[in-house]
Amino acid sequence: MSGAKDRIAGFAGKRVLAIGDLMLDEFIWGKVSRISPEAPVPVVNVTGESYYPGGAANVARNLREFTKGAAVMGIVGTDAHGQRLTELLDATGIDTAAVLRDGSSSTTVKTRIVARNQQVVRVDRERPGPLTEAQTRRAMELLDQAIGGVDAIVVADYGKGFLTQPLADYLCRKAGELGKILTVDPHPHTSLRWSNATAIKPNRTEAFLAAGMRPSDPVEPVERDAALLEAGRKLMSLWGTRSLLITLGEQGMALLEKDAAPYFTPARAKEVFDVSGAGDTAIAVFTLGLAAGAPAPEAAELANRASGIVVGKLGTATVSAAELEGALEEK
Question: What DSSP letter does each residue of 70-98 carry, written as one string?
Fold first, then answer.
């Protein structure tokens, strides 16, 4: 990719706001040596614990690998988990001024117990629900304060309730008025409308569900997947977006744009250890590419390379600029 290193270097000067559901990812690491006498389940002897920003906070964490201008917006509780999450974000230099701290909310925590590099179980602690009218008004105020100083906005919807249609409409209107790049990683069960977003990035299943179609089996080669292309065309019309980037797992990515032939980029992963957060990495790097002036196909290639790196790591991982540059040098 000619000039890709210069493009990645250009990420450093961009300021991007990640908006969406904030979570705390907890990893409990251990060893399994026996089966419990109480039930047919493994006994995990804990050897360590790790905490990482999750959800939209992980998108911000991925952005921060490339630029000091990473900011995040969402809601956390005033509980210990919310405090830990904001402290983690602050410690990495992510701007948390737009984070709404609310005592009536409960911070979402996803706990993964891992032994021998295998996830044994995941425990979710959450109380999902839409924002109240008062919380929505406060979120709009925080958005007004943050949006003027950013080059792009990336939305990560995990269906936990922070993103509502009134807030989505307000965000789309403000982004359009100010000429900001707006990318969206949607959730298939929220059915939110993102009017005139710059780009929307569903995965294959999400694309079919959003298009009102029954998901079909992948076709090889992907260029001949007529059902996938039909779903993509429906979504382009339904969402009115300039670009539609569909992530396809081991088949890579498909990019659809108005008045252009579909663009396909194959998967780049060497080994797959953990797909946790791969979508966060993809939307973060894709958005940075667009903000840095890359055409959508080039931004998709960079996002695909970054995703191929992160799935080779265990846990909620990120990709550095040096790692992405190194991947581009490989044949």
Answer: EEEEEEE-SSHHHHHHHHHHHHTT-EEEE
Burial class (CB in 10 A: 0-12, 13-18, 19+), 36: exposed
The tens digit of pLDDT for each residue in 9-58 reads 999 999 999 999 999 999 999 999 999 999 999 999 999 999 999 999 99
Q: Which residues pair with 122 in a beta bridge?
A: 112
- Kind and range of the H or E element at 230? helix 226-239
All structural domains of the chain, each given as residue ranges with its CATH number in brackets, are 4-22+54-78+133-329 (3.40.1190.20)
User: Are 294 and 8 in contact, with CB atoms under 8 Å apart?
Assistant: no
**Which pLDDT tens digit goes with each residue over 273-288?**
556 678 999 999 999 9
Q: Is 174 exposed, middle or buried (0-12, 13-18, 19+ CB in 10 A)?
A: middle
Rounded Cα–Cα distance for residues 293 and 285 (Å): 12
Closest CA to 46 of 112, 125, 2: 112
* Helix/strand/coil for 115: strand
Strands 263-265 and 253-257: antiparallel
Cβ partners under 8 Å of residue 37, min gap 6: none
List the catalytic residues.
280
